[in-house]
Amino acid sequence: MNLPGFNGLLDQANRLTVRHLGWIDQVTCRSPRLVIASLLLLVLVSLASLFTIHFETDIFRLFPADRPAMRLLLDSLEWSGGANEAYFLLEGEPAALPAEASRLAERLRSLQVDGAPAFKRVVYRIYEESEAQRFADLVAFSAAHPAAFVPLKDSPALLERFTPQAVNQALDQLTAELAGSIGASGVGFSLADPLGLRTLILPRLKAGSQALDMDPASPYFLSRDGRVLIMIAEPVKPVQEMAFARKLVAGINQARSRSQVKISCAGAHISAVIDEAAMKSNILSCILSSLVVVLGIFYAVYRRIWPTLMIPVILAVGVLLALGTAGLFLNSIHIISFAFMALIIGLGTDYSIHLYDRFHTERVAGATTDQAISLAVVDTGQGLFTATMTTALPFLALGWAEVRALSELGILVGLGVIFSLYATLFLMPILLRKIDSPDRQYRPLPGLGLGRLWRVAGQWPRPLLWGSGLLVLLFLLLSLQTSFDGELKNLQPQHSEAFHAQELVEQHLNLAPKSLLVALDGATQAAVMQQNLAVEALAARLATEGRLQAWSSLGQIMNRREDQQQLVTQLQGAHVQADQIEKSLKNKGFSTASFELYLNKLRAGSLTSVLDESVIIAQLTASPLRGVVDRHLVHDRTGWHALTYLYFKAGQLDQAGFVQELQKAVPTARVTGTDLVSQELLAAVRRSAVNGIAFGGILTLLLLLSHFKSASGIISSLGPVLFGAVAMLGTMALVGMKLNFMNIMVLVTIIGMGSDYGLHLQHRCAEGSPDQQEQNFIQAARSVLLSALTTVAGFGSLAFTDYGAMSSIGWATNFGIGFTALAALLLVPATVRLACLRR
Amino acid sequence: MKSLLSFLFVLLILTAALPVQARSLTPVEGLEALRRSFSGMQDFTADLTQEKQLSIMKKKLVMQGQIRFKKPDRFFMELVPPYSSKVLLKDTVLQQRLGTQGELQRIVLPPEQGLSRWFATLAKPVTAVPEGMEVRAEQNNSQTSVTIRPAKNGQLKELTVVLHDDGTVRKLVLEERGGDKTTMTFRKTRKNVGLTEADFRLE
Q1: pLDDT tens digits, residue range A73-121?
Q2: B87 contacts in A (CB within 8 Å)?
Q3: Lower Cβ count inside 10 Å, N or C end of chain B?
């Protein structure tokens, strides 16, 4: 390939690579102890760096928190207490749930961590006895200030309540209530609200307080179908304190172990703690299973115990150096990123395979130990060097990905691959020199049918290439059916408690399948409440138009000043007289002195006064409904936040259209929802993928160019990748597997990983006599085949994890690697033979 | 308030069902006699007359009705017009309906105040008067009177149980700290009549 200006540079790069490999060969030969001591020192430094890293388990830290929708989602978790509270979902026979909930609540209330109660509160009932007085106070307030709470549409009913006839009826009803109650238990409410105005107020408060779709007739937090009961518990300490959280979870597990119904525990952070152990064992089993399979493959083919045992050492060095280097510029690493070790086992073993295979082949051919090692390190090493860089650089390019899950994985795998190569180049030759002797007999390695493959490919190169082209077209057509799964929850462990709890809430308790949260931020309560009027008006209009299933804000349970004013004007017209009510009380046999507090409020004009909204909010905050206030109005160190929740079915509300409408009506409003967060993530992932493919692709191309300096070499390397990537997408569509935020990155990493196969084959087979080419092909193809198998073993272990994120990467990579290796083994010999025929 | 409610439910049941021993009783003996007598009972029904003198009313309220109980955790009270109402307690779930068409109200008592829990406690022999509680027991020729003063912080000030020695006529008087007083008189008491779930419905 004639590339003026580049050739000199490429030659220089190749010369440097060869000199570098030659130096490695010499230093491992002459100063093995120095090499080992230096590696040990590096490992020690890496360990020191490793101890500075904080290991995260919080799933939310995997995603970019600076995006508007994700930021608001995280804020809302903090505001709502969702990040701190623990939710217990009891599922089973409806008749058994209350009793089991009662027992669980008792056990949780008595649960102790470090000698102190573990929970501040545990609630699962609509009415808690400890709230009785506060509830009575709220009733007294609302009865004296009905304009604050009675819905405007009920103003005729409210006015009717103050007619003499209605007052007498209400007092008769009151007498019946007092008679029917046990002892004097009804006296409190009677004094607070003798005219029974609470029947006009409480339904609104109750409806507005429903964050979940619960059975309105049940005294428990019970789903409408009666199958799921939810219990909310607030730990005494933030569950981000991991030592406390672990003990808490141990106590929770003990508390629920004796239950007759299934109890799932959820909550943003507590779920992470509960799933932490599962997560760790999942990753550990991945690592161990892939290691066992990889070592098994290596030993089965080469039958050499010491080189087999050297592989874990090489991988351990590679992993430690990668972690230690990452520790220099990463403050923390998510525990999920440790799955990279499984990938390193798959990818890092490739170098040992190629190196050992070449060494063994050369020894069979009669080379001495040093000659065989030098050929393996310098010649095969040249291919390995390029292959490593083409694998590592696309992974490292992901380091700039906006999604932390991808950037961490990219950095760790990229570094791990490079360090694994160097560990192989430095350690394997030392071992081979140590265990080898001149008189040792080396038997030829199994051809694995690859010679026949070479001959078949050489015999029918054109049909093979045309057939491959047709297959690519077929897979391309299939790949057009590939869809994208934007559901974040599908990336979680599919059998985790968090996942199960989320499913339960969606199936049994959600007010609607989809929701949005609108937040207005401001410096004062009055300011955000005032601004939120526009959001409420928009939500009310959407509800009227049938575009919302339900919505909630603080304005849903209390009257804003304008509504109060209208009610007060009507009440003024009704000329309600406290003296008249006092007279009625007296006539019905009541002691008017007992009602003096109520009557004095009326005399002071409570019925006809418009209250400041802050007064009503303060009263609600002091009542059992403070949770409703907390849900819709938050005060934190950044200021006040008014929150409005919108609920709708799929397709009922055009979310993008709503966001535009909202921005027009209230430009300062923020909005979030799972779909919006998914869209943000998708955009971030798409940018990362495009940048990764472009950056990784260009780097790979440059490296291949440097290596081959010919178009045929580049085509041999990238052709199988193209085939593999298209076949991967086509197969995914065929088996109903979707692309997601994680496995979409395989399109980036497959470029580097897959190009290795064609590279090695082309590197070894392009030149020489036909017989020599065949022998070289058999040796290189065996290495490629085994490399592909070990890579599949590494990623394959991910495919069987419970983590949707990891599993999807595993399957996609296995499809991609499998097809790429197959294409390389068939198409490279075909193109090589075709080129020979043309020559 | 509901602690008081559940306590009263238990006392209602106990006092309606007990036969009486005509002898002088110490506080512990009085409580133990109540417990022992209850232990042989599976269910009972009784007609009820309830008189209430509430601090917020000048007139006395007088109601007629019926109560039913079934072990381990069912209690039902129905008052007839002019103050008709029904109350059903299923262990910890209290339901009340005023009149025949009134809205059903439901609240849940804390588990420690559930009927089953009370009766599980009462199944154990009384060996001492509970802390903070005062008990007086008096006996004359035809009836025994046990007066209980619960712990000072509660809403209930004093409860007096009047038991006739034939075990069929009973009275319960409860005085609350707000000055409210309720007197319940039971008659036509029948024990172990085989009540079923159908007898414990609000419909």
Answers
A1: 888 877 765 556 788 999 988 878 888 898 899 899 999 988 899 988 8
A2: 180, 182
A3: C
Give yes or no for a contact between A296 and A345, defined as CB atoms under 8 angstroms apart.
Answer: no
For residues B163 and A454, the model is more confident at A454
- Top pLDDT among A781 and A270 is at A781
The total number of structural domains that make up chain A: 3
What is the percent of chain A with per-residue pLDDT over 70, rounded to a whole number? 95
Check whether residue A733 and residue A809 sit in a common domain: yes
- For residue A114, the domain's CATH number is 3.30.70.360
User: Average pLDDT for residues A717-734, to the nearest whole number?
Assistant: 91
Q: Are residues A321 and A425 in the same domain?
A: yes
3-state secondary structure of B97: strand
Whether residues A229 and A314 fall in one domain: no
Among residues A750, A763, A749, which one has the least CA distance to residue A710? A763
Find residue B181's DSSP bridge partners. B53, B175
The more confidently predicted of residues A655 and B139 is: A655
* The residue type at A168: N
Q: Decide if pLDDT at B169 tops 50.
A: no
Same domain, A93 and A47: no
Residue A31 lies in a domain: yes
Whether residues A379 and A526 fall in one domain:
no
> Is B5 at the interface with chain A, CB within 8 A?
yes
Is A504 a member of any domain?
no
**Residue among B118, B83, B152, B105 at smallest CA distance from B6:** B118
Q: Indicate which of A123, A133, A182, A220 best probes the interface with B, i.e. most B CBs within 10 Å of its own CB.
A: A182
Q: Which of A540-549, A738-747, B2-11 has the highest mean pLDDT?
A: A540-549
Are residues B57 and A178, on separate chains, in Cβ contact within 8 Å? yes
pLDDT at A606: 92
Closest-approach residue (CA) in chain A for B106: A219
Q: What is the mean pLDDT of chain A?
A: 86
Q: What is the ipTM of this complex?
A: 0.81
Do B11 and B172 contact (CB within 8 A), yes or no? yes
In DSSP notation, A319-375 reads: HHHHHHHHHHH-SEEEGGGGGHHHHHHHHHHHHHHHHHHHHHHHHHTT--HHHHHHI
Closest-CA residue to A409 (of A342, A502, A315):
A342
Same domain, residue pair A553 and A465: no
Q: Name the closest residue on chain A to residue B53, using Cα atoms.
A: A184
Asked if residue A564 lies in contact with residue A610, where contact means CB atoms within 8 angstroms, the answer is yes
Q: Measured between CA atoms, how close is A589 to chain B, in angstroms? A: 5
Same domain, A261 and A377: no
Question: What's A198's DSSP letter?
Answer: H
Of A243, A266, A289, which one is at a domain's C-terminal end?
Answer: A266
Instruction: Give yes or no for residue A649 having a pLDDT over 70.
Output: yes
> Per-residue pLDDT for A60 more than 80?
no
- For residue A90, what pLDDT is reported? 92
Q: Are residues A309 and A427 in the same domain?
A: yes
CATH of the domain at A809: 1.20.1640.10
Domain assignment of residue A158, yes or no: no
Q: What is the pLDDT of residue A197?
A: 92
Tell me if A761 sits within 8 A of A829, measured CB to CB. yes
Spatial distance between the Cα atoms of A356 and A369, rounded to a whole number of angstroms: 12
Is A716 contained in some domain? yes
- CATH T-level fold of B2-190: outer membrane lipoprotein receptor (LolB), chain A (2.50.20)
In this prediction, residue A15 has a pLDDT band, given cuts at 50, 70 and 90, of: confident
What whole-number distance in Å separates Cα of residue B49 and Cα of residue B186?
A: 7
Give residue A632's domain range.
514-557+625-648
